[in-house]
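Hmm, what's this shape?
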Amino acid sequence: MILRLFVRLGEVYDLGLADDRLFVTRVLPLISGSLLKFLGNCLRTGCSWTDCKSQLLEEYFPYFICETLVRDLIVFKFHVIGEPMHEYIERISQAATILQYQASEQQLVDRILMNFDPDILSHTAFLDRPRRIKDLNRVVGLIEEKISVSRERLQADPDPKGDCGGRGKPQDKP
């Protein structure tokens, strides 16, 4: 829950609409309990948002918890068919950022690719290997377009052999 909150807050912060102090001040009414106390302390000490996030990881996500989350949310977070690929990539990328995943962007892209559903992964065989998240999103767009075209073809002609193809007994037509 805290991780999701800070991922979303990070997205808003990245818009650059407010300085660190004003941003933290605007966040305070949205939270309660120990997290409110924690952010109040960040505000009192004049921490930047980046410093506050680092302290948050130390406070709420000790090393073993952080490693478990990296394992569950990045390393072994497998894509399932039907899950939008762009959302999957974004979720993995955000978790890697907030948990300070110690890998290069290329390594993260490779990890995401490895964890795609095998049916989706088979579509990447003839595409250039993406090196950045931006490239991966481009490749995913091509794959989604290919899958969409295949579905449309199947809907337009559900029996690709037609009525006269194949062996076997001829069908009686009324």
